[in-house]
Amino acid sequence: MLRCPICGSEVNPLYLKTIAETKTELVDGEEITKYKCNDCHSFMSPVELKHDFQYYHDKAEEIYGSRWRDILVILDEIKEYGLFDEEKYKLAGDAQSAWINAYNQRIQQADNNKPKCPTCSSTNIQKISTTSKVVGASLFGLFSKNATSQFKCNNCGYKW
Ligand SMILES: [Zn+2]
Ligand SMILES: [Zn+2]
């Protein structure tokens, strides 16, 4: 469980390997690779959390009365490195909520683009295959509704 010591965001090891921009810095005569944080965009060396999630849940329950406030316990630990930056933390939060909003919007859009039944608005519809069109046409003649329909609603049975 790696974290950015500047904004506290979770750092995915895969992100470090494949996408992160890097910068080499000389610290006490030693070359250190720093990675660009995906959320706050600062160059940092990720830190590893000292405990497992259970620990943070329990501590949050103990201190804040709710295990879901574990992020506060994690941030306290990260602040010990002395690199934490409140502004960057807010920036990272904004970046994350912007990403979540965009993601929700995409889902909403995909939902809107789904074909719906024009009579009952159900999305439980099926495309009528060519075979059923041919069968419909040969059994009931050219005026069969099946011959011209494209969709059938599984909810109300309407065809269009
Ligand atoms: Zn960061
Ligand atoms: Zn319908």
The main pleated sheet reads as: 3 strands, antiparallel
Uncertain stretches of 5 or more adjacent residues: none
The distinct ligands, each listed once, are:
zinc ion
What is the C-alpha radius of gyration, as a whole number of Å? 28 Å
The rounded distance between the terminal residues' Cα atoms is 53 Å
Derived from helix and strand composition plus strand pairing, the structural class reads alpha+beta
Helix content: 40-55%
Strand order of the largest sheet: 2-1-6
Report on this structure.
With 160 residues, this protein is α+β, with helices and mostly antiparallel strands. 44% of the residues lie in helices and 17% in strands. It is built from 6 helices and 8 strands, in the order ββαββββαααβααβ. The protein has helices at 13-18, 53-64, 70-79, 86-113, 130-140, 145-148; strands spanning 2-3, 10-11, 22-27, 30-36, 43-44, 47-48, 125-127, 151-153. The strands form 3 sheets. The protein has a 3-stranded antiparallel β-sheet. Strands 3-4-5 form a 3-stranded antiparallel β-sheet, with no helix packed on it. It has a two-stranded antiparallel sheet with strand order 7-8. Strand 1 and strand 2 (10-11) form a beta hairpin. Helix 2 packs across helix 3. The longest helix has 28 residues, at 86-113. One zinc ion binds at residues 117, 119-120, 122, 153, 155-156, 158.
